[in-house]
Amino acid sequence: MPPSRARSGRPVVATPPTWVAAGVVTVAAMAGVGTASLTGGAWTGPAAGARADASTSSAGGSTRPGGTDDVDPLRGTAVQRSGVRASAAGVDAPAAADAPVVSVAPGELTDVRPLPLPQVVDRDTVGPLWLTPEDRAAGLLSLDVPQSADGVLDVVPGAAPAVGPGPVRTVRVEVERGLAVDGPAFAATVMATLTDPRGWGARGEVAFAQTDGPADIRVVLASPDLVDTMCAPLDTGGQVSCGRNGHAALNVRRWVEATPEFADRTQYRQYLVNHEVGHLLGHQHERCPGSGPAPLMQQQSLAVSPCEPNGWPYPQG
């Protein structure tokens, strides 16, 4: 059966259509809203804002003589009824003065179209538009990348002793104010990377201890503009990161997006931390040997192939 048209000639489309003819349609509203019904051409229940599925019912609502405009709670339009006016719990429904009027006589075949429900995405949904659990663990609260933020660096509070043997290097973690980043979560990711058995301390060369005071190494997550400033005279171009002058300046753009050759953003983040801290430990760039895992100090943000992505100085531990 095709959708009917109101007298104004405007189509009234239901998705899916719920046909009504001189009966009662009960609209099950969202939790806490209540119900709305169409009885003999008049709405009863909430006057506006109901979002729900429509189903037929034999229950009616209260009406009173009036012949004035009602507000259709599903479409936000004023609907001219004949001889009845909607009310909710005995209270007259407000009219929308600027709403278009669609005339529907009692008994006329029409349909009800509920407004679409808001999209609800499970917090653990994996997709290009949503944060993954790994993104959240890395401290991200949004996938938006601002070109600049406040320019002020906040030290993440906290301290932890060194893990493993070797000379101790203290590490302070900082995040630029204004970035949508959970500082403690970001710091936990940084320290977990640095103290991993595959990391720089794997062979007893160094041990890392977190501090929020004076430190040997600063690991900073910052906007592209601030990274460019911190890395000058190196040209990071708003795109890449650097390790120099005692700080590993990590570009939030790369922390969010990684690069196309890294299918696993977590692996890229491990690479980014280890690579830039590696510079502060005195390690220089290396080239891909032709196959196999890329050397950690290869500039993998620029190109990995023909090697394979690698985030660790000692992948085998």
Cα-atom radius of gyration:
31 Å
Helical/strand content category: alpha+beta
How much helix, percentage-wise, in residues? 10-25%
CATH topology of the largest domain: Collagenase (Catalytic Domain)
Structural account:
By secondary structure, the chain is α+β, with helices and mostly antiparallel strands. It has 2 domains: 19-111, no CATH class; 133-280, Collagenase (Catalytic Domain). The chain has 5 helices and 18 strands. Strands 13, 14, 15, 16, 17 and 18 form a 6-stranded mixed sheet that branches. It is globular.
Quick synopsis:
By secondary structure, the chain is an alpha+beta fold. The protein has helices at residues 133-137, 183-194, 224-231, 252-257, 265-280; strands at residues 19-20, 24-28, 35-39, 42-44, 53-56, 63-64, 69-71, 78-80, 85-88, 91-92, 101-103, 110-111, 153-155, 168-176, 207-210, 217-222, 242-244, 247-251. A hairpin with a 6-residue loop joins strand 2 (24-28) and strand 3.
Output the keywords:
317 residues; alpha+beta; Collagenase (Catalytic Domain); 2 domains; 6-stranded mixed beta sheet; 18 strands; globular
Describe the SSE topology.
Elements: E1 19-20, E2 24-28, E3 35-39, E4 42-44, E5 53-56, E6 63-64, E7 69-71, E8 78-80, E9 85-88, E10 91-92, E11 101-103, E12 110-111, H1 133-137, E13 153-155, E14 168-176, H2 183-194, E15 207-210, E16 217-222, H3 224-231, E17 242-244, E18 247-251, H4 252-257, H5 265-280
Parallel strand pairs: 8-11, 14-15, 14-16, 16-18
Antiparallel strand pairs: 1-12, 2-3, 2-5, 3-4, 6-9, 7-8, 9-10, 13-14, 17-18
